[in-house]
Write a structure and sequence with these properties.
This protein has nine helices and 16 strands. It is an alpha+beta fold and 355 residues long. β8 and β9 form a beta hairpin. α2 packs across α4.
Length: 355
């Protein structure tokens, strides 16, 4: 290495607002932005240690009326404290955003990031404002940003919007759902039961969504989300419901990934035991897959597709043409594209693997 002596300029400046706007360019659409809210809720459930059957995420849409603008919202039943808001949520470009919350033993895989996407969506895609109403362990917070700004703050001020008493979670959720023309009683039964047990919740809402004039904008967005590569893991980890103007969609059932039909005659996946030890091809060391028998052996499940996964229309199949790593505790923790593997087989483009 060549020795280079210099004196760093300690007076270098950065334009905070412009830097944030540059960073937020990838989220200038509802399709890319709303998926970030969903990912954040999914990650919150994983960090909180919730079992897979108790991870509802509710997407809510309210159409424009004479007295009220259209709104888009996302709700989970985890909630945030003011400490989380001030230490984590308001922190931009945090390389440890996915690891925070005081529980670094939980791996949330591809749900993690730098804490930018959800806030970017809030600052860019709503004319009026975007807000976070949240409560956890008896205390609530209201936090948000005015349309066109990147400066977040408590609503209406720090004194009244931070750590106010929340006596009943269901009542607090009902109040937060009013602008969406919804209530706890209008939610599907499984969510109502979980609300009755909840000790917290978060609802992020955007008022006056931009580019939302199309009468079918809501349905178009939902269809786009089902094919979005960032939605695959949340749909596998959580139960994602849709409520429009207080009415549950999809028959009150959670959304599901589009079905991939198997090759005729191979409808049942082939399941193989993963050996207790495998050899690292780089170091040649034997690696335990069970942490020296502390955990049960894993399984390799091979599924087939009746169509070439690499040639799927619009890339929707390509994003699911993967080897997906799954744990009993956290669910999906990572993926590798099939095309990245050195597989010398004509069947490679017609299989999916879950391990």
């Amino acid at each position: 290495m060549v020795n280079f002596n210099y004196t760093p300029d300690e007076g270098i400046q950065i334009h905070r607002e412009n830097a944030i706007r540059q960073m937020c360019q990838p989220f200038l659409s509802h399709e890319n932005g709303l998926t970030e809210w969903v990912k954040n809720s999914s990650a919150a459930y994983i960090r909180d240690g919730r079992e897979p059957s108790k991870r509802p995420i509710i997407l809510l849409f309210a159409s424009k009326q004479r007295s009220a603008p259209a709104s888009i919202a996302c709700m989970d039943l985890v909630g945030m404290t003011s400490t989380q808001i001030e230490r984590d949520f308001r922190h931009w470009a945090d390389p440890e955003a996915a690891l925070r919350d005081g529980n670094r033993g939980v791996w949330i895989g591809e749900l993690g990031g730098h804490g930018n996407g959800g806030k970017c969506y809030m600052t860019q895609m709503f004319e009026d404002f975007a807000s976070l109403n949240t409560a956890r362990n008896g205390l609530g917070c209201a936090y948000g940003v005015k349309g066109g700004s990147v400066a977040f703050g408590y609503v209406p001020n720090r004194q009244d919007g931070k750590d106010f008493a929340v006596g009943n979670i269901a009542d607090a959720i009902n109040f937060s759902l009013l602008p969406m023309r919804a209530s706890v009683s209008s939610l599907p039964d499984p969510i109502q039961r979980l609300v009755s047990e909840a000790t917290g919740f978060s609802i992020i809402r955007g008022s006056g969504p931009r580019y939302w004039e199309d009468r079918d904008a809501c349905q178009t967005l939902i269809e786009s989300l089902l094919g979005h590569h960032q939605m695959i893991t949340p749909l596998q980890l959580c139960q994602i419901y849709v409520i429009v103007n207080g009415t549950p969609q999809n028959g009150g059932q959670p959304l599901a990934l589009p079905r991939i039909d198997p090759i005729s005659g191979y409808e049942t996946p082939r399941i193989l035991d993963i050996p207790e030890t495998v050899r690292d091809p780089i170091t040649s060391q034997n690696i335990s897959t069970t942490n020296r028998a502390q955990f049960p052996n894993g399984k390799l499940q091979i599924y087939t597709s009746d169509k070439n996964m690499r040639l799927g229309r619009g890339g929707k199949r390509q994003s699911r043409h993967t080897v997906t790593y799954h744990t009993r505790k956290s669910g999906v923790i990572g993926k590798i594209p099939m095309i990245a593997l050195d597989v010398d087989s004509s069947c490679r483009d017609y299989i999916l693997i879950l391990s």
